[in-house]
Structures are given as structure tokens and as C-alpha cells.
């Protein structure tokens, strides 16, 4: 996903993980998913991503960049991101978190409150 603004990207996920812990980070990722998803379909589509991208400061991304984001995380090839694909993509886009992701995910899965996130939709 090459973008003219890619060099200006600042990765806040490691800081969030440090402050919130594994469970809190997963909760925030789930909130981000819900913010971007098409509420009728329950997934992030190109249209829902384009419509809601300004909420994340991504309004300047081109359609090609938005399609690239979807393609990068779309493991099942359905053209949309479910909640699991979105969360995995967010970890993959954070090089620092990739090293810590197994620990953070295991920590989050062990938390009792994690069930409310519906991570495995």
C-alpha cells in the first residue's frame, strides 16, 4: 500500500499497547472496526472505508490506497474486512507490534472482559 503520505505515518499502536495492555488494545481495535464498518453488512467495505476514512484523518487517501488497504487485509478474498482481518491487519501494519503481537493477543484472550469484543466475528 504505497501512498505519498506513507513517510509521514506515525505508528501509535505500540504506545497504545503499552498504556492499555493487550485487552485494552484489542478493545480499541474493535472500536475502530465498528467505526469503519458498514453497519448493515457487519464488515468494512470499500464504500464504508471511504465514507468513514475522514474520521481517522485518512480523507486524503486515494481510492487506490483504500482498495490496497482492503486487499492487504482481506484473507478470505471476499473484498471486505471482517473484524478478525481488520485486527490482524492493524498488527501487521505496526512493525514494532508484530514482534509483540503473540504476547498481546494471548494476554487479551485470557482476559474475562474480552468476550464482549466479539473478536472472532
UniProtKB/TrEMBL annotation:
It comes from the Eukaryota. Residues 61-96 form the EF-hand domain. Keywords: Calcium. Pfam families: EF-hand_8 (PF13833). The keyword Transmembrane helix does not apply. GO terms for molecular function: calcium ion binding. Gene3D superfamilies: EF-hand (1.10.238.10). The keyword Calcium applies. This is EF-hand domain-containing protein.
